[in-house]
Each structure stands twice: as structure tokens, then as C-alpha cells.
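Consider a typical record:
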Amino acid sequence: MKILGIESSCDECAAAVVEDGRRVLSNVVATQIPFHAAYNGVVPEIASRMHTEWISGVTREALSKAGLRVEDIEGVAATAHPGLLGSLLVGLTFAKTFAWARRLPFIAVDHMLAHLYASRLTPDEPEPYPFLGLLVSGGHSIICRVDGFDDITVLGTTIDDAVGEAFDKVAKYYRLGYPGGIVIDRLAQSGDSDAFHFPLPNLHKGNRRYDVSYSGLKTAVINQLEQFRTPGKEPVPANIAASFQKTAVEILLRSLFRAAADTGLTTVVAGGGVAANSYLRARLAERKDLRCVFPPLELCGDNGAMIAGLGWQYLARGERSPFSVTASARVRAFKRRYP
């Protein structure tokens, strides 16, 4: 069954065709980075406007690269939440219209569940359930137990900023470039990660064993830099980037390793844009007692293949979404308030 997947949750306009939930026939991503770089962040109005202009052409390109005609598509999947509301509505409306016009089954899916599914879009045998999921992106930092493709239990999440958001804000403040995650990862390669010893958050109120927080780290890096500088180390951009990246990743891993110890699960499946971070991958590779699975780099960021793959699972189970389904900017369980 060949599924067309549409993804427009933020600033990537993406379409893909996936067969039987695993085989990627095409995966087209039109990036809007040049349009947002001047603002060092995504401008929602620009993002939704560019999706409107590009979505049809991106879909045609996905069909062409798959060697298929419109008539060959057997189902349609699209992101419904979470994300930027205006951007979501463009892709969701296009997908519903495509399915309605062709009388095809349609399914609306969760963007974060799709990131978790991305690692299964390879020839390798997929990881058996259950396992721990690590979903890290510009908008979310989630540690969860995964018992099925649509069955997750959120163990920990951010109480303020997401890890990717912290990368972007630090990069913006120091004018390192955009997108912040990629720029800081590259710059950190030539920096000293011990030049600054930034603090880890102390989430001591209530049951916060697996939660994470990035507002304190962001404040330390931006407003209290000298307070945490190691004597004799230079406050150059590469050192700031390396030290910040190390602390940001260690915040995640502290909670993840607690979850692994408490649950007894020894497999970790990562997803989301920050899953491409080289330091995160290297640190997880050091844990010989854990099996850590990452999607291919091209499937870490937002893409239509993960939407189509996850959509196939629902459609194969006989589920359909009504054309009245609409977009939602947030999923309540993915973020928490403190305390």
C-alpha cells in the first residue's frame, strides 16, 4: 500500500511516498531556512505562507521521484499536531483535499509519534517493543516508554524550554548563525567543553525524576557567563558552544539514564532534529549496556516519510480520520508545568 505523507508542522514543507510502512520511495523536503535566517528563528506567518506556495509542487516532486502517478497513491497521511497552527492547517487541508478528490483513505497523525517511527524506515529489522523513546526537537524534549507505534507513556518532559529551543536561543544571542542546533554542533568540534561549567537544573519539587529544564541553562549561558568560566579558559564562541552543548545533552541523559535504570529497558530509540547532534550520539554510544537506535540523519528533521510510514500503520489497522479533523498546536501530555 503506497501512502502519500504530508508534513508542514513548522518550516519544512515536505512530502513523501512510503510503501507498506517501511519502504521509502521518495522523500522531498523543501527547507525555508533562507527565509527565516534573517530573524534567527521561524516566523510563523512566513512559514505558513511558504507552505501555501510550495505544497503542491513539493507533492508533485515526491510523486515524480517515486516514479508514480497520482492514480497510484492508495492512502494519504498528514500531520495534525503539534506544531505551528497556521503551518499545520496548510498541509492538513491539502492532504484532506487530495484524499477527498481521489476518494482515498485519510489519516491525521501525531508529529512526535512520527519522529519516533522514523528509525523504522530502514531495511534493518525494527526494534521490538517495549523500549525507551527519546524525542528531542526545537519544540519538545520527551522521555517515554513505548509499547507500540501509537502507545507511549510520557515519563519525563520539559517544564519550560525544549532542548532544541535552547540551542536556537543561545545561537541567536551570540550571533553564531541559524539554525542554532547545527551551528553549535559544528562550532563545538573545535571548542573546549570544560571551558565553562554550567549548572544542571535541580527539579526537587514533586515527582520530577525524569523531567528536564533548560531555562536555567539558557540564563547561565546568556546572562551569567563569567560566573561559570573555568580560570584560564578563553570565552571564545567555540568554547561557549562546546560547554553549552555538553551541559544541554547531559541534562537529557541524566533523566534518560534514570528512566533506563528504573524501568529495566535497555533499548533507546531517538527521534527529532536534536537526534542528529553528534555529542548526543557519541555519549549514548559510550553506554555499552544500552542499545541506542537513531534514524538516518535525513530522517531526524521534519520529513514526510515518517508521516507516511506511521500513517500506513493506522490505515492497515482499518482506521480513518474524518475530513472534519483539524489541527492542534499542542499536545498537553508533551509539556508540564512546575511544580
The chain has two domains: 2-117+300-334, 127-294. Strands lie at 2-7, 12-19, 23-31, 75-81, 106-110, 131-136, 141-148, 151-157, 267-271, 291-293. Residues 237-263 form the longest helix (27 residues). The chain has a mean pLDDT of 94.
